[in-house]
Design a protein that fits this description.
Layout lengths: L1 E8 L3 H10 L5 E6 L6 E9 L4 H11 L3 E10 L5 E10 L2 E7 L7
Antiparallel strand pairs: 1-3, 1-6, 2-3, 4-5
Helix pairs in contact: 1-2
Bound molecules: ligand 2BA.
The site of ligand 2BA has 12 residues, from strand 5.
Length: about 110
């Protein structure tokens, strides 16, 4: 058994969730926050048989878009003088980790 963690943009959360459940996967959604942008995102937990992991990743890929996002940054231009300017970063589609599950039980 494997556990797939997938961090996706909040805007993609519903399409990803719908597609996974429609394809028969049990899904848990966690509200999470990215450490860099400090913006809300969604972390999915999906536990499944090893041979279904590629299908899960394909579904997530299909419903997660890559986005350009601006973050404020500051630079110094003299003693005590700072100016703020936006820096563009690319976010997503999805960040995915797959781990082994030692034991799975529903009691
Ligand atoms: P954030 O940490 O808010 O990062 C948002 C985007 O900012 C990242 O997009 C990346 O393009 C950029 N970024 C992150 N850290 C950076 C840094 N130190 N310097 C420059 N740019 C940086 P993604 O790579 O698509 O990541 C989206 C979200 O996935 C992340 O949100 C974080 O919540 C999660 N994530 C990404 N990589 C991770 C990892 N190795 N471990 C745990 N969570 C991760």
């Amino acid at each position: 058994m494997k556990l797939v963690y997938a961090i996706v943009n909040n805007d993609d959360s519903h399409p990803v969730s719908n597609a996974l459940t429609q394809n028969g996967f049990s899904v848990t959604k966690l509200a999470s926050t990215g450490g860099f942008l400090m913006a809300g995102n969604t972390t999915f937990l999906v536990c499944s048989e090893d041979e279904k992991v590629d299908e899960i990743i394909d579904i997530i890929k299909e419903h997660s878009r890559k986005r350009r996002q601006f973050v404020p940054s500051t630079t110094s231009y003299g003693a005590g003088n700072y100016t703020s300017f936006p820096v563009e970063v690319s976010v997503g589609g999805a960040t995915i980790f797959v781990t082994d599950i030692e034991r799975f039980e529903k009691v």
